[in-house]
C-alpha cells in the first residue's frame, strides 16, 4: 500500500507525524529509555516519517536536548531506511535554575545569537550538519517578531536549516514571517489545535492554506491530563463515528483533522508504542461526507 504523504515546504512527510515530547517532558511517570526508543521505532515501523522534537523537551533545565538525543538514537538504531525520516526541532525557549537553585525559570530569546547557539546544540544532539525543519518555538515579546524570523532566515542561508517554521503564532505573525521570508518560504506553522482547543488557531489553519504553508497541530487529540483519553466521551460526534467504524475516538479525531485541508499534518504525542501505532492508521480511515459534516459541527 502506498503511504499517504503531505508536503512541508520541499519535504515529503507522512500525513501523520509523531510528537516525541512525552518521552522527555510533561509526564509524571515518563517512559524508560528502552520504552522511549521502542516507541520511536514503533512510529517509524508504522510508516510515520515526521518526528517532532525541541531542545527544551527535557526532564530538567540542565538536561536540555534530552528529547533530541532520544530521537536521534531512535532513528539511528531503527532497522529501516532512515534517509526517509524528517526530524523537526524548535528553539527559542530558555530554561534555567530558579533563585533557590531548585525552582526552574523559563524565558524566551529570539535573538540571532541565542538561536544560533541553540541550533548548534540541536545539530550536535541530532548528529546532523543541518536540520530538516526548524521552528521558532514561541515569540519573544522583547523584540520585533520580524527580528526572530530574520534570525532563522540567516541560519537558513548559512545552510544550517533546510525549511523554516514558526510555532504558537497568530495570523499577524504568520504574515510578518511571510513578509520576511518571501512567498512560499514559510514551510510550516505549528500551533495548538484540537476538538477542545481551536478558537485561537482556526484562523491560522485557514491562513496557512491560503499561503501554501503546512499547518501542524500540536496536542491534536486534546493534550495530556486526560484530554486525549476522554475526547470520545466529551464529543458525541466523535463517539458516533468511532463506533460506526469500530476504531478509537483518537483515530477519528486525527482523520477529521486531516480532512480540514491537504496542508494539515497533525503530530500526536505518545509515550507507548500502541498509541502511536493507532495514530498512524488515521490516514486510512475513510470518513463519509456526512461524518465530516457532523465532526465539523464541533467548530461551531
Automatic annotation (TrEMBL):
<dbReference type="Pfam" id="PF00248">
    <property type="entry name" value="Aldo_ket_red"/>
</dbReference>
<keyword id="KW-0560">Oxidoreductase</keyword>
<dbReference type="InterPro" id="IPR036812">
    <property type="entry name" value="NAD(P)_OxRdtase_dom_sf"/>
</dbReference>
<dbReference type="InterPro" id="IPR050791">
    <property type="entry name" value="Aldo-Keto_reductase"/>
</dbReference>
<dbReference type="InterPro" id="IPR023210">
    <property type="entry name" value="NADP_OxRdtase_dom"/>
</dbReference>
<feature type="domain" description="NADP-dependent oxidoreductase">
    <location>
        <begin position="16"/>
        <end position="298"/>
    </location>
</feature>
<dbReference type="InterPro" id="IPR020471">
    <property type="entry name" value="AKR"/>
</dbReference>
<protein>
    <submittedName>
        <fullName>Aldo/keto reductase</fullName>
    </submittedName>
</protein>
Amino acid at each position: 500500500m502506498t503511504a499517504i504523504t503531505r508536503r512541508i515546504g520541499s519535504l515529503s512527510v507522512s500525513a501523520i507525524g509523531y510528537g516525541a515530547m512525552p518521552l522527555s517532558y510533561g509526564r509524571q511517570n515518563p517512559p524508560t529509555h528502552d520504552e522511549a526508543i521502542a516507541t520511536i521505532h514503533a512510529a517509524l515501523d508504522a510508516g510515520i516519517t515526521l518526528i517532532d522534537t525541541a531542545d527544551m523537551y527535557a526532564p530538567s533545565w540542565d538536561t536540555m536536548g534530552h528529547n533530541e538525543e532520544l530521537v536521534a538514537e531512535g532513528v539511528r538504531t531503527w532497522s529501516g531506511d532512515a534517509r526517509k525520516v524528517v526530524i523537526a526541532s524548535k528553539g527559542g525557549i530558555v530554561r534555567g535554575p530558579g533563585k533557590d537553585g531548585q525552582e526552574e525559570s523559563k524565558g524566551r530569546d529570539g535573538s540571532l545569537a541565542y538561536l544560533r547557539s541553540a541550533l548548534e546544540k540541536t545539530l550536535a544532539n541530532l548528529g546532523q550538519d543541518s536540520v530538516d525543519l526548524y521552528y521558532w518555538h514561541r515569540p519573544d515579546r522583547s523584540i520585533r517578531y520580524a527580528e526572530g524570523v530574520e534570525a532563522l532566515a540567516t541560519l537558513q542561508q548559512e545552510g544550517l536549516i533546510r525549511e523554516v517554521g514558526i510555532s504558537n503564532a497568530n495570523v499577524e505573525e504568520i504574515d510578518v514571517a511571510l513578509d520576511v521570508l518571501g512567498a512560499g518560504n514559510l514551510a510550516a506553522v505549528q500551533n495548538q489545535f484540537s476538538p477542545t482547543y481551536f478558537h485561537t488557531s482556526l484562523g491560522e489553519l485557514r491562513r496557512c492554506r491560503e499561503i501554501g504553508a503546512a499547518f501542524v497541530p500540536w496536542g491534536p487529540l486534546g493534550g495530556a491530563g486526560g484530554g486525549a483519553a476522554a475526547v470520545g466521551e466529551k464529543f458525541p460526534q466523535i463517539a458516533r463515528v468511532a463506533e460506526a467504524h469500530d476504531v478509537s475516538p483518537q483515530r477519528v479525531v486525527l482523520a477529521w483533522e486531516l480532512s480540514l485541508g491537504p496542508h494539515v499534518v497533525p503530530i500526536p504525542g505518545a509515550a507507548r508504542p500502541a498509541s502511536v501505532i493507532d495514530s498512524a492508521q488515521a490516514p486510512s480511515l475513510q470518513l463519509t461526507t456526512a461524518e465530516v459534516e457532523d465532526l465539523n459541527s464541533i467548530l461551531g
